[in-house]
Design brief:
By secondary structure, the chain is α/β, with parallel strands linked by helices. The protein is built from ten helices and seven strands.
């Protein structure tokens, strides 16, 4: 099982020994693997010193046996999980194993075209981009179940992350080697690798329109649950990237504001009652007013949020990565 405590390799430790690493995560894609590898070899053989890294995410259809057969020429390296951990775990292991100056990720279902590889490689090595993300302008998926939800998701992602990508979740992407070695992909965060990279200091992120093909074999693993989970993961990663190092700034400030608001309201109700009572005016007991109980709830929630922030701050200060920084260079 992948442990989140296993931190990625520091850029200073990187020794990229090849031109290109093609990382492919797969789950039950047996029918497409041979055709995909032949296509990749046709495009890159003789042009690059390359490797194909395939991560079998617990397939049950015989995909691993097919990969073993394809590895005979020495350009295919592979990892097989004992069970299905998810795409993020697969990419984590693939990134850790990648030796190429440029790392390209793609799906195994033949919807991503290997013909895009040379231009993606050029945009990293010659144009100097940190990340080039594919943009499937003309999708070959069901419009109702994938296209429309994808547009909504990407619109929200652009607004929250500030990264102007039309298709952040596209599986076809190219990275500089030190980008993938400087980020940690876990959970379902593979959808937001550009945002993880941005928060690690890699800000030269662009996109390239890519050809998207209709699925030839098998069926899509996409479901509406993944669409909903994507939004929840987006909120999680935004919070972690914004307040992960200083949680007290969020919980403490929110807690203090709620505590003061509730305290002021409760005090105002008490003072108002005392003044009316002294002046012989009609008054309503404080404990019979719903607003008083709302004020008490605000005070209690404010106290709890403040203590939560304090606890999170203690955890953050004692975390293994509290002084982990990405260094661009040294003199």
């Amino acid at each position: 099982m992948i442990s989140r405590s296993e931190m990625p390799i520091e850029p200073s430790e990187i020794s990229a020994g090849k031109d290109l690493s093609i990382v492919i995560s797969l789950f039950n894609e047996k029918e497409s693997l041979a055709e995909l590898v032949r296509w990749i070899r046709k495009v890159v053989s003789g042009k690059y010193d390359y490797e194909i890294i395939m991560i079998d995410d617990g397939s049950t259809d015989g995909s691993w046996e097919t990969i073993q057969q394809l590895s005979g020429e020495g350009d295919v390296r592979a990892i097989s999980f004992r069970r299905n951990y998810g795409k993020s775990a697969a990419l984590y292991c693939g990134f850790k194993a990648a030796e190429g100056r440029v790392v390209i990720t793609m799906d195994a279902d033949l919807q991503d075209s290997p013909e895009e590889i040379p231009e993606l490689y050029r945009m990293i090595t010659e144009d100097g981009h940190d990340i080039v993300s594919g943009w499937k302008q003309h999708r070959k998926d069901n419009r109702l179940t994938k296209n429309i939800p994808s547009k909504i998701f990407n619109g929200v992602a652009r607004w929250i992350t500030g990264i102007r990508l039309h298709d952040m979740n596209c599986g076809l992407k190219a990275y500089r080697n030190d980008v993938v070695k400087s980020i940690e992909v876990y959970g379902e965060m593979h959808r937001f690798i550009p945002y993880l990279a941005k928060n690690a200091g890699f800000t030269d992120i662009t996109e390239k329109p890519v050809h998207h093909q209709k699925r030839k074999y098998g069926k899509s693993k996409f479901g509406m649950s993944r669409f909903v989970n994507g939004f929840l993961d987006l909120l999680s990663i935004w919070f972690l990237c914004t307040f992960g190092k200083n949680p007290m700034h969020f919980f403490g400030l929110t807690g203090i504001l709620m505590f003061l608001t509730g305290g002021v309201i409760a005090l105002w109700l008490i003072i108002s009652k005392v003044i009316n009572q002294i002046n012989g005016m009609e008054f309503r007991p404080v404990t019979e007013q719903p607003l008083f109980y709302l004020a008490l709830v605000a005070v209690l929630l404010g106290s709890m949020l403040f203590l939560t922030g304090f606890t999170c701050e203690l955890i953050s200060r004692n975390s293994a990565g509290r002084n982990r920084y990405n260094i661009k260079g040294r003199i």
